[in-house]
Amino acid sequence: FNNLKVLGIRSEIDRGWQGMPYLLRNCPHLEYLAFDGILHCKTDKCGDACDCISREDKGRSLRSCPVKKLKIKEFRGTNRELEMIEHFLKSFPCLTETEIYARDNGPTELKVRKDFERAYERIKLYDELYTSHVNFLMAHSLIKSLQNREPSS
């Protein structure tokens, strides 16, 4: 993986990220990392690739990874996803740009206005707190459905 600059990963809720630390440690020139979903099965083998298990000696795969741009698709607006995004922002030292794409079809907490506002405010805070510029993008259809809902729904 020595010359790999772009990596796309499809994450699934019933699969762990056991191979992620090895993969990231062995991509010394990786600049662009794209996830199709970031929810995955909790395991103690993820190392520092996620924050599933809180412990001191988790490894340094993210800190040693030179990723500059992070793209996350299928964002549902869950607290777990927001925690993962913050973990990435804290851990990738070279990260300058983060794009988060809201899931616009299927199950998502973003269709409930108060949940959308909570997620949106937290992402805005991430943009202010971390060196990476954080963009939150969503489909026009999701924006329209939110505009038609009452603020408390």
UniProtKB/TrEMBL annotation:
Record-annotated membrane-spanning stretches: none
Residue ranges annotated for the FBD domain, each copy included: 60-137
Record-linked InterPro entries: FBD, FBL60-like
SMART domains: FBD
PANTHER family, per database record: F-BOX_RNI SUPERFAMILY PROTEIN, RNI-LIKE SUPERFAMILY PROTEIN
Protein name: F-box protein
Highest classification ranks of the organism: Eukaryota, Viridiplantae, Streptophyta, Embryophyta, Tracheophyta
